UniProtKB/TrEMBL annotation:
<keyword id="KW-0175">Coiled coil</keyword>
<feature type="coiled-coil region">
    <location>
        <begin position="6"/>
        <end position="43"/>
    </location>
</feature>
<protein>
    <submittedName>
        <fullName>Mobilization protein</fullName>
    </submittedName>
</protein>
<feature type="region of interest" description="Disordered">
    <location>
        <begin position="83"/>
        <end position="109"/>
    </location>
</feature>
Length: 109
């Protein structure tokens, strides 16, 4: 083979390799974007559930006790600190909002 034919093949191979690398980068970027979107959705779901739990705790002592138990189970210091150092207090129902008796039986009020 002459040098000219060898150079043409090398140019074709180099161009194909460059397209392959571009495709790999595009795939990686697409996967990263999808992962970011999934994390965003999961974070939103957690925020909504947390807000719902806090709201319910304001009206029902059972949910206040759930929050207390969850707080006791925190093990990472940064998680404990997030609540301890910022004055978090478990929401409690006011007497006129609590339809349950002390034993947790609903009174229907």
């Amino acid at each position: 083979m002459s040098d000219t034919v060898q150079n043409k093949k090398s140019a074709k191979v180099l161009a194909a390799e460059e397209r392959l690398e571009q495709a790999k980068r595009a795939l990686r970027d697409a996967k990263q974007a999808e992962n970011r979107q999934q994390r965003k959705i999961a974070d939103r779901q957690k925020i909504i559930l947390g807000a719902t739990l806090l709201n319910l705790a304001e009206r029902d002592e059972r949910f206040s006790r759930v929050i207390d138990e969850l707080l006791k189970r925190l093990t990472r210091e940064q998680d404990v600190k997030a609540f301890r150092d910022h004055g978090f207090a478990t929401p409690r129902p006011t007497n006129d909002q609590n339809p349950a008796t002390e034993d947790g039986v609903h009174t229907g009020a």
